[in-house]
């Protein structure tokens, strides 16, 4: 299966280890993974702040870069949701751009979707002997409706103890540009999320979006909690040999 990695801006610039983990995991499961170097931003920030034409341009570029692949996998519920939800709304009906979007968009998957819905795998052969709690990010929960896909994968990781997170469906307060426009509210929401995480006694907080983990992780770090943040891909790529 010829798979393209859509790395996303946050991962490319701040969390390259997540992208490496996705490649390692998918190759372990038999996929032929490629990284199209011409890929750029999906346009989420542009569209969300009113720059629609820039979003249209970036959507057109995205479809050109990722055309021809069997699947496009992103380690981000946020960016995958942008492509799947917003791209069809950006294209002019009946246009060549609309046709290109209709061809590519159905092949775009968040990582846990791809593993469970396409590869039909729940046990990916991972080993991670730690107490973990999972935060379902807003776009993955409400946009992609991932449901229990990430936790089903975590439950099959050997050595991992998965503990429920109180108030898990509450937003962490990041919300991309929301945290910039409303810093006080964002910080208060992050503090609430941190308090719930500490209540679990978990060593590691896991999520499917590094943007949210970055926000929550900042609060965890400033409070010197000792709780680490890890992307779902990094836990799933972990093996006994790597420990």
TrEMBL record:
- List, alphabetically, the InterPro entries matched: Cys_rich_dom
Domain Cysteine-rich, residue spans: 3-83, 132-216
**One Pfam family here:** CCG
Query: What PANTHER family does its record include?
Result: LACTATE UTILIZATION PROTEIN A, UNCHARACTERIZED PROTEIN YKGE
Task: Spell out the protein name for this chain.
Answer: (Fe-S)-binding protein
Query: Which source organism?
Result: Nonomuraea insulae
């Amino acid at each position: 299966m010829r798979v393209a990695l859509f790395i996303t801006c946050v991962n490319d610039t701040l969390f390259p280890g997540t992208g490496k983990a996705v490649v390692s995991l998918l190759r372990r499961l038999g996929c032929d993974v490629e990284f199209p170097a011409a890929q750029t931003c999906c346009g989420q920030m542009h569209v969300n702040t009113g720059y629609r034409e820039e979003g249209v341009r970036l959507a057109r570029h995205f479809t050109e870069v990722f055309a021809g692949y069997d699947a496009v996998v992103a380690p981000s519920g946020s960016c995958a949701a942008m492509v799947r939800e917003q791209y069809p709304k950006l294209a002019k009906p009946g246009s060549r751009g609309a046709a290109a979007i209709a061809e590519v968009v159905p092949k775009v998957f968040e990582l846990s979707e791809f593993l469970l819905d396409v590869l039909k795998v729940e046990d990916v052969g991972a080993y991670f002997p730690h107490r973990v709690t999972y935060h379902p990010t807003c776009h993955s929960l409400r946009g992609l409706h991932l449901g229990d896909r990430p936790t089903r994968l975590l439950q099959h990781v050997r050595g991992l103890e998965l503990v429920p997170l109180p108030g898990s469906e509450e937003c962490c307060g990041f919300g991309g540009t929301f945290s910039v426009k409303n810093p006080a509210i964002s910080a208060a929401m992050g503090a609430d999320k941190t308090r719930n995480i500490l209540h679990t006694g978990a060593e590691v907080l896991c999520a499917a979006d590094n943007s949210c983990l970055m926000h929550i992780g900042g609060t965890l770090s400033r409070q010197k909690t000792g709780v680490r943040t890890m992307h779902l891909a990094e836990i799933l790529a972990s093996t006994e040999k790597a420990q």
